[in-house]
UniProtKB/TrEMBL annotation:
PROSITE patterns, alphabetized: ARSC, GLUTAREDOXIN_2, PROKAR_LIPOPROTEIN
InterPro entries in UniProt: Arsenate_reductase-like, DinB/YfiT-like, Glutaredoxin, Thioredoxin-like_sf
Similarity section: Belongs to the ArsC family.
Pfam families (UniProt xref): Glutaredoxin
Domain of life: Bacteria
Gene3D superfamilies: dinb family like domain (1.20.120.450), Glutaredoxin (3.40.30.10)
The name this protein goes by in its record: Glutaredoxin domain-containing protein
Species in which this protein is naturally found: Rhizobium leguminosarum
Residues covered by the Glutaredoxin domain: 73-124
Signal peptide, first to last residue: none
């Protein structure tokens, strides 16, 4: 299997080594790098008790207080993060009250996450136990609720991802250099260029997980790629990712897949990681589609491509 072009893609072990510094970063860029990698799906912070509380955003003073005075459930998130939006909706759909902590506004909340042994957000706390929120199955187990979502087959997901990447390329191709440097949303320091890159990095990181057993794919999808600046740069990178994806997974062939993949949030079923990659890409593609519509372009992605995917109802936060 050919890897992505060396000029613009995550091409080989040397480039992977060069971006190891980002593996301890969450998208908000305030997470400290931990000295020891954790592979557990949930972590327990000992010596604290909690009481059930209402749903509200804490003030900075309260967020630093003991867990004894805090709600039983906390969600740690950042604006524009697709998994953050999804986990908040998932918990709300089960009628559970939770403390909402935007770690860009509450750096002390991010410190709670890192002290618990997690290396990024979204994360969920119940009492003194924490879990990464990338897997809703893990969140459901932590909270004692059911995740009743029925997944599409792997073959359907492979094909759906290809279609979404194709539509997203058309969206990205409409952005000139000026548009690429504009901020996406005011609540977060992220440009349209960075969101375009990140959207395709989700697929790139999945390719590396499958081909190279890359455990912490965030070394890829949190790399800001300052080498990609112009529309030509962007399309060269996008086409490299799409080419490798199609060569690897199209036509869809689920018989060649492993049963499990190693991730920074624990060993996960292949189907779970695949589905997360597809809907993660779809949510960001949906965001880019609306950004393009906001500057006068027609929406590119038909609603049919979202059907069956557990994308959030909300767009940004």
């Amino acid at each position: 299997m050919g890897h992505i072009n060396r000029s613009f893609g995550f091409c080989d072990a040397r480039r992977r080594d060069s971006v190891q510094g980002v593996i301890g970063l969450c998208s908000c860029r305030v997470v400290a790098v931990l000295n020891t990698a954790r592979s557990l799906n949930t972590m327990t912070l000992r010596g604290n008790k909690t009481l059930l509380g209402g749903e509200f955003a804490l003030s900075p003073t309260n967020a630093e207080s003991s867990l004894e005075s805090r709600p039983e459930i906390s969600v740690y998130w950042i604006p524009g993060c697709s998994s953050c939006v999804k986990v908040k909706e998932f918990i709300s759909e089960h009628g559970l009250a939770f403390e909402s902590l935007n770690v860009l506004e509450r750096p002390e909340a991010m410190e709670e996450v890192t002290r618990a042994g997690l290396r990024g957000v979204p994360a969920v706390r119940r009492a003194n136990t924490y879990a990464y929120a990338q897997s809703l199955d893990d969140v459901a187990a932590l909270l004692g609720v059911a995740n009743k979502h029925t997944k599409l087959s792997c073959d359907v997901l492979f094909s759906r991802w290809d279609d979404i990447l194709e539509k997203t390329r058309a969206i990205v191709a409409a952005f000139d250099a000026d548009v690429l440097q504009r901020p996406v949303i005011p609540q977060r320091d992220r440009t349209i260029r960075e969101l375009c890159v990140h959207t395709f990095q989700v697929a790139e990181s999945f390719l590396r997980q499958v081909a190279d057993d890359t455990i912490d794919a965030r070394a890829i999808y949190l790399d800001p790629r300052p080498d990609i600046q112009t529309r030509a740069d962007m399309l060269s990178y996008v086409d490299d990712v799409r080419c490798e994806y199609r060569n690897t997974f199209i036509p869809a062939n689920s018989s060649a897949k492993p049963d499990y993949l190693n991730t920074h949030y624990g060993q996960q079923p292949f189907a779970q990681v695949l589905e997360r990659g597809v809907w993660h890409t779809a949510q960001h593609a949906r965001q880019l589609d609306h950004v393009a519509a906001g500057i006068g372009f027609e929406l590119q992605i038909p609603q049919a491509l979202y059907l069956g995917l557990p994308i959030p109802n909300r767009l940004w936060s």
